[in-house]
Amino acid sequence: MRWALLLQYTAGAAAYYGVSVAGYWAYGSAVSEYLPNELGGPRWAAVLINATAFLQSVVSQHLFAVPIHEAMDTRLQRLEEGMFSRYNLTRRFFARGLMFGFNIFITALFPFMGDFVNLFGSFALVPLTFMFPSMVVLKIKGKSGGRWSRLWHWGVIVFSSVLCIATTAAAVRLIFNNARIYHFFADM
């Protein structure tokens, strides 16, 4: 398990930062926030890239909205009936559709919604992805985990904290810069 996690984080970080550094080297700071806007080539490749980006956003929104879905299911459904009863399926379909529709409307309304995604990702997803697992390991293993293990996890926590502060500051700066030139539905 440990080697799988190490491989996952190493491969993920190498690809993520490798693409970021190579993209900045190739395009500079003038590149669009949405990289597929800058790419050329056959139409099918653009369709595939945009479909993949759309699928990723739907899956990630669904993943991180699961607690909201659970709360809505508890409130809006008849709990004594089965989860797949006609009434519950209809209510679930419309409630989740309204939630996704509202999110899409807000995203289209604010042309710099990606900056808000950066902001929430910087102070919510970075800690959950990097700090929280190390905190759990430190809490569970305590002093029995070994000196190097504790040192590694504390290093991850400190590095992630610095990363969290830096990315949050950058996201707030982007929001302020884009708010000055803001108007509704600018990207439509």
From TrEMBL:
<feature type="transmembrane region" description="Helical">
    <location>
        <begin position="44"/>
        <end position="68"/>
    </location>
</feature>
<dbReference type="InterPro" id="IPR013057">
    <property type="entry name" value="AA_transpt_TM"/>
</dbReference>
<protein>
    <recommendedName>
        <fullName>Amino acid transporter transmembrane domain-containing protein</fullName>
    </recommendedName>
</protein>
<dbReference type="Pfam" id="PF01490">
    <property type="entry name" value="Aa_trans"/>
</dbReference>
<keyword id="KW-0029">Amino-acid transport</keyword>
<keyword id="KW-1133">Transmembrane helix</keyword>
<dbReference type="GO" id="GO:0016020">
    <property type="term" value="C:membrane"/>
</dbReference>
<feature type="transmembrane region" description="Helical">
    <location>
        <begin position="93"/>
        <end position="113"/>
    </location>
</feature>
<keyword id="KW-0472">Membrane</keyword>
<feature type="domain" description="Amino acid transporter transmembrane">
    <location>
        <begin position="3"/>
        <end position="171"/>
    </location>
</feature>
<feature type="transmembrane region" description="Helical">
    <location>
        <begin position="152"/>
        <end position="176"/>
    </location>
</feature>
<keyword id="KW-0812">Transmembrane</keyword>
<dbReference type="GO" id="GO:0006865">
    <property type="term" value="P:amino acid transport"/>
</dbReference>
<keyword id="KW-0813">Transport</keyword>
<feature type="transmembrane region" description="Helical">
    <location>
        <begin position="119"/>
        <end position="140"/>
    </location>
</feature>
